[in-house]
Specification:
Two copies of one chain form a homodimer. Helix content of chain A is about 25%, strand content about 25%. Chain A is an alpha+beta fold and about 375 residues long. Chain A folds into two domains: about 25-130, Immunoglobulins (Immunoglobulin-like, Sandwich); about 135-365, Rossmann fold (3-Layer(aba) Sandwich), CATH 3.40.50.1820. In chain A, the strands form four sheets. An eight-stranded mixed beta sheet of chain A has the order 13-14-16-15-17-18-19-20. Chain A has a five-stranded antiparallel beta sheet with strand order 1-2-3-7-6, with no helix packed on it. In chain A, strands 5-4-9-10 form a four-stranded antiparallel beta sheet, with no helix packed on it. In chain A, helix 6 (about 275-285) links the parallel strand 17 (about 265-270) and strand 18.
Chain lengths: ~375, ~375
């Protein structure tokens, strides 16, 4: 178990999100990234997936962007006569969202042109490489659900804790109806803002619902208390603390304050990366709380793990094709052979990053609460 | 009118938020700012209001923080043998929240220790100088309202626009009740996130409600479309665009999708700085939409302005004592003499910054919808 956690942290820290395609001629059709701050022209991306950066720091001696070549130090920018640093990734990036930061004379800063997203236990810069399937998480002229920030009492941690609750359009149109709930966890280094800010979970749901591809349900996102986990610090990790917050504090609060169907059959848990590990641990520790389990780039279940949970309604396991898809597929095959309703999904051409998880949510949602 | 807008932009750009007290011995009781990123030790503040910064940039030649001396270039940091830059403001800062950024070798970046807040048309670093009255916006063990992110259709701008809606605890406890609404605008350079992130408007309301000091109402916050206004660009400013979004698109959406009392008597508009200017313009252009008007460091009304609006229920005008409080007081005196229910508030020891506006909201809320 601890080894598995280490692997997730390692993947998250090291994966460059860098396409394996051969060097090619760079098309000069660069446009501002959709994740830029208002009015900012840089960073830019082109139709091939190259990213181009521009940083003003006239007196600096060295400016690098962490994105582009991973272990080899990212993209080194060069300075022109006006003190403006520019540079382009050495190859195309994978489709979707990437975190990055800028190193200026040995210090770590964010790109002043980009918006910030909480990842790697800091607010990082974010960039979006337009994906061929980006329509499924685009802001469209469809009915929109809400993302409700709540502060729920947590006696075990001695404070009010924040969560976000996605409520679908139907929730507000039908004030007497009750709905199932998906508890959805972020990964290591992230927090409860990740699934909507980076993942666009609300827009994915809005679009699926508008197309009639899923039934409506609530999504609850809170902080998984994972960010204290550092290299070598895993011996101190204990799921008990988050499990108490989630199962004994948040779920009762949600059931009391939202119109939920408050039973195991209508409650799902899913998580990405470390959030998948948490999902796995909590669903195994508390078999009567959730009936639908989903691990997104977050480990697998064996039939042995679930031998006392024959009434689980769905096991969904996914990853990017650049992770270890064979483990996802073989695990699901074994679960099916053991009689479980198990589904695998592999996101083509993506790695341990949010494009994998956006697509995983798109695939998961229509399977829930059937 | 245009002159007044220029003044607001000028104040916002130039005011150092710097206390006028004499140089004093610096107490070594510095603690991390409450606005720091998780786990970050710097920036720090002490009990006198001094701020201390620490930036790692080993190969940099110059690191400055914009906070501390305003026009004189802020606080210059000095480098130790390990390449760590530190520095303390030359004097105590005003109580409350301040925006700032870091200049590294001529480039503008954020402090990697601080969280980011949208101001000055960029995501800025934020720091909090503990105020003697900070309890009124603290996170306490009281019933908490929600902050609901909505996406409302805006035909006039061809997109779905974001707004946040504060719903008080009572709104969720009494599903058959309807509530009045305050439309609350941010200032120049800010956006719809300002009033909750920087202003803690939701916590201010939660605390006032828990103490029985105000009646419950909704607060709606959206982007005021002010950020295109730059020095010299005022000739292009036209309130019409935002007025259409607010009055013709957002208000009908709120009244259709929330349990509001959808009439003039139960609708207020308030704004800070440029948002006050917008409040002033829109309440004068559209006298039948709102009945309670509030300008927070955002100009004044004359009796002549309101000569055809004798049924306005409340005019609230406020500023910091370090702005132009005499204009606030004399304007309210004139309005009272003309028969209006006008109230002034001056925030002691604060300037054109969020502590003034947090306090103004605390003073305004109990006066609304009486």
């Amino acid at each position: 178990m601890k080894h598995q956690i280490l692997v997730f942290v390692a993947i998250l820290l090291c994966y460059p999100g860098f396409s394996q395609e051969k060097q090619q001629e760079i098309k000069e059709d660069f446009k501002p990234s959709s994740k830029n701050q208002p009015g900012q022209e840089y960073p830019q991306v082109n139709s091939q997936g190259y990213a181009r950066f521009r940083i003003v720091a006239p007196a600096a001696d060295s400016v690098r962007v962490s994105l582009g070549l991973g272990g080899q130090g990212g993209t080194k920018l060069t300075k022109n006569a006006e003190g403006v640093w520019t540079g382009t990734t050495a190859g195309p990036m994978d489709e979707g969202f990437h975190y990055y930061h800028v190193n200026v004379d040995g210090g770590t800063f964010n790109d002043p042109g980009a918006k910030n997203y909480y990842g790697s236990v800091r607010w990082e810069s974010g960039i979006e490489i337009p994906a061929h399937d980006q329509e499924f998480y685009a802001l469209k002229d469809v009915p929109h659900g809400r993302v409700q920030q709540i502060l729920f009492p947590s006696p075990s941690t001695g404070t009010s804790r924040r969560a976000f609750v996605y409520t679908p359009p139907a929730y507000h149109e039908n004030p007497d109806e009750r709905y199932p709930v998906l508890y959805l966890q972020h990964g290591w280094g992230e927090d409860e803002t990740a699934w909507t800010n980076q993942g666009h979970a609300n827009l994915i749901m809005d679009n699926l619902l508008a197309e009639g591809k899923t039934d409506p349900f609530l999504i609850v996102m809170t902080y998984g208390m994972t960010n204290e986990i550092k290299w070598g610090g895993l011996k101190d990790f204990d799921i008990k603390h988050f499990q108490t917050v989630l199962v004994d504090e948040l779920i009762p609060y949600i059931d009391e304050n939202f119109r939920t169907i408050a039973d195991e059959e209508h409650r799902a848990m899913a998580g990405l990366s470390m959030g998948g590990m948490e999902t796995r641990m909590i669903t195994l520790n508390k078999p009567d709380v959730f009936s639908h389990y989903a691990l997104l780039s977050g480990g697998t279940y064996s039939p042995e793990d679930l031998k006392d949970q024959k009434d689980v309604k769905l096991v969904f396991i996914s990853s990017g094709s650049k992770e270890r898809p064979e483990a996802v597929r073989s695990s699901v095959e074994e679960l099916k052979n053991a009689g479980f309703n198990a589904v695998s999904y592999v996101s083509e051409g993506t790695a341990h990053e949010f494009q994998t998880w956006r697509r995983s949510l798109r695939e998961l949602a229509p399977l829930l609460f059937k």
